[in-house]
Amino acid sequence: MKSRGVYSVFLLALAVSLCLAGPALAKGKDTLVVAVDSTFASVEKYATTQQIVRLWSCLGGNVLYRDAVTQKLDPERSQLTSWKMLDDTTWEFTIRKGLTFHTGNPMTSNDFKFTIEKGILDPERKARHRTRYKWIKEVNVIDDLKFQIITHKPFPVALDRLAAFSVYDSKYI
Q: Which pTM was predicted?
């Protein structure tokens, strides 16, 4: 009799779980549903210390993808398809054509400029990662898919820093 009660509670819990999971299971095969057990103080990666926000930002893809085995940057799996040094303090980057944010807005050079200059380096924003990007002097937009990062002085690990970089949608923030 007691085991029948435990079994009934288990079945009830299973039924409730399946009902609550229904919306997540109903999504298409190209949709990822993420549940988080806490509230966000901010969804800005550069303005928070909440680890869940930093992990969440990884879902957006990598500006520069580094292969875990070879440790080489892979332009085929990166948001940036090419990069080169024009001189000791100027890097030029090309964004992959057709990338969009969750809002549907296209990813452009203006988004990179906004994220770096307003989202991170602006002292008013008090971004916690500001010191990690202080090597950047300015960002110049060449066109929608091409931009340049000008550094204060030669900075040989620029690509390593950008491998952990996430871009904000400047029209959304």
A: 0.69
According to the model, what pLDDT value does residue 163 have?
A: 83
Q: Where are the beta strands (DSSP E) in the chain?
A: 80-87, 90-95, 136-143, 146-151
What b-and-e string marks burial along 54-65, b requiring 16 or more CB atoms within 10 Å of the CB?
eebbeebebbbb
Residue 31's φ and ψ, nearest 5 degrees, are -115, 130
| Amino acid 157: pLDDT | 93
Residue 49, Cβ density class (10 Å: 0-12 exposed, 13-18 middle, ≥19 buried): exposed
**pLDDT tens sequence across 104-163:** 999 999 999 999 999 889 988 887 778 889 999 999 999 999 999 999 999 999 998 888
Q: Residue 102: what pLDDT?
A: 82
- Provide the H-helix boundaries in 43-157: 51-57, 109-113
Kindly report each contact of residues 34-43 with a partner whose C-beta sits within 8 Å and lies 24 or more positions away, as own/partner: 34/59
Beta pairing class for 80-87 and 136-143: unpaired
Tokens representing 74? 């892979």
